[in-house]
Design goal:
The complex is a heterodimer of chains A (109) and B (377). Chain A is mainly beta and 109 residues long. Helix content of chain A is 0%, strand content 48%. Chain A has a 5-stranded mixed barrel. The termini of chain A are close together. Chain B starts with a strand and ends with a strand. In chain B, 34% of the residues lie in helices and 18% in strands. The chains are: A mainly beta (109), B alpha/beta (377). Chains A and B meet through strand 4, strand 5 and strand 6 of A and helix 4, helix 5, helix 6 and strand 5 of B.
Chain lengths: 109, 377
């Protein structure tokens, strides 16, 4: 049983047409304030993932990070809350304050 | 106005008990000895973290007084791991402008008094705030770059052990290097995981060290031929391609154009191998080979001191050590030593006429390229 992934809100810049995350504040590419939010599925494809042997202070050990591509070529660096995914895996993406949380899909048995 | 490197001073790298100013003074004293104590009217100092007896704030007046340069003008610069390169570029421009006659450039870092956790946090200051918020570290992001590089060019990951083997071999004949013993491929592949595929011996170390250079008007074997710098997005996810450092390509283009020469005329290179997989990427970005072709240069030993292009004859960051703010100036100083025939035991097989130093600021967000050598006849 799988829940429908929560939607993720991306930004689109009217000035330079960039698509981006996070959506707070001006366009990260050209600093225009003429931006619009739009909704995409909260899913992404892992490009690379790693586990830090020495996380910075106050972070749990192990601390796993992944570079993930969501809709429209937008990439995020997210914190992995599941076993380390491999490149090409699809993960759920959820915004949690100023960070993104990633979780691998359960492997079909 | 033409300017040149007139003298070089490098101290021994590693764990040093001296304070920040004393380390800087050691390198500076050697450089001033090298010009017979001729007067210096500009002091440019670079430092970033400055662990130990005191922070970086008072380093400039401390050093000016310590060196007897009370009448010189002074500036302190900071550009993360490119601090030393920025200090050199600022001083070279200032002397070339005609405003100053002779500049002493000093870059220093004191790291070993900090814990690994403290240093990891402080070095992350060179990353984007959103990356720090996600708990990213420099090795963590370098691991992602490495994975993209391996994927894109379908590389055998073991080939990325070779830059460390190369660096440590060269460092073993540089008496100032932090690491004095060679390592094998098995040593590298068997070292502990840091952020896989990166292991401990793929990563540059925590190092104390300083370098100094005197720049003066005139021409010689280490004339300043071309300076270039370039920026890239601070946030890694905003870069379309992680397998190249665009800021290096911009910096190299500007430096080659300023020097009116091409990469074919470069005979020695010191590049920023903060992580082993970066060394082949830098060779590609500097135009020495095509995308994905860098690793073969290490497999074929073309980068050795007697190879077609000696790379990091000093041992580079992986062998010599990486005192962050000092690194960019050491790279330039080491190229100057090769050009001036003063490199001693780690001299290249043939004395070069033109050399290039490349330095990354942060994870490649602000990169510098410096070309030195004999001016065209």
């Amino acid at each position: 049983m799988t829940d429908e992934p929560a939607a993720l809100t991306l930004g689109r810049c009217d000035a330079c047409n960039a698509r981006f995350l996070p959506t707070d504040g001006p366009c990260p590419r050209c600093a225009s304030v003429r931006t619009q939010p739009y909704s995409v599925p909260g899913l992404g494809t892992v490009l690379a993932a790693t586990e830090l042997a020495n996380p910075p202070p106050r972070w749990p050990n192990p601390h796993r990070l992944a570079l993930v591509e969501v809709a429209d070529g937008v990439r995020i660096l997210g914190i992995v809350d599941s076993p380390l995914p491999a490149a090409g895996d699809v993960v759920s993406v959820r915004r949690d304050g100023e960070v993104y949380r990633l979780r691998g899909e359960p492997t079909p048995s | 106005m033409k300017v040149q490197v007139a003298s070089v001073g490098v101290c021994r790298f590693g764990k040093r008990t001296e304070g920040l100013a004393e380390l800087a003074a050691e390198a500076a004293g050697r450089a001033l000895d090298g010009i017979g104590r001729r007067p210096v009217d500009l002091l440019v100092v670079g430092t970033m973290l400055a662990h130990g007896s005191h922070g970086p704030e008072a380093l400039l007046p401390h050093l000016a007084g310590r060196l007897g340069l009370e009448s010189a003008s002074g500036f302190r610069v900071e550009a993360a791991s490119a601090t030393g390169a920025m200090a050199f570029h600022v001083a070279a421009g200032a002397v070339a402008s005609g405003r100053y006659t002779r500049a002493l450039v000093v870059a220093v870092e004191k790291m070993t008094d900090g814990t690994t956790a403290e240093l990891t946090g402080e070095l992350a200051a060179a990353l984007h705030p959103s990356e720090v918020a996600a708990g990213a570290t420099m090795p963590g992001l370098a691991s992602l770059v490495t994975q993209r590089y391996i994927q894109r060019f379908d590389l055998d990951p073991a080939v990325l052990d070779l830059p460390t083997v190369h660096a440590r071999a060269n460092a073993s004949s540089n008496p100032n290097a932090q690491f004095q013993k060679p390592v094998s491929r098995e040593d590298v592949s068997g070292s502990r995981a840091v952020a896989l595929p990166l292991r401990l011996l793929h990563c540059s170390a925590i190092t104390d060290g300083a370098a100094a250079v005197v720049i003066e008007r005139g021409s010689g074997s280490a004339s300043v031929l071309g300076l270039g710098q370039g920026f890239d997005t601070l946030r890694l996810v905003d870069r379309a391609d992680l397998t190249t450092f665009a800021a290096t390509r911009i910096a190299a283009k500007r430096a080659y154009e300023a020097a009116k020469l091409t990469r074919k005329e470069i005979e020695v290179v010191e590049l920023h191998d903060a992580f082993a997989p970066f060394a082949p990427i830098h060779l590609e970005d500097l135009g020495f080979c095509g995308a994905g072709e860098g690793p073969a240069w290490f497999e074929r030993d073309w980068v050795r001191r007697d190879g077609r292009l000696p790379v990091n004859p000093s041992g580079g960051l992986l062998g010599r050590g990486h005192p962050v703010a000092a690194t960019g100036l050491v790279a330039i100083a080491e190229v100057a030593l090769q050009l001036r025939g003063e490199a001693g035991a780690h001299a290249t097989a043939h004395r070069p006429k033109i050399g290039l130093a490349q330095t990354l600021g942060g994870l490649g967000s602000h990169n510098f390229v410096t070309i030195l050598g004999s001016p065209p006849a």
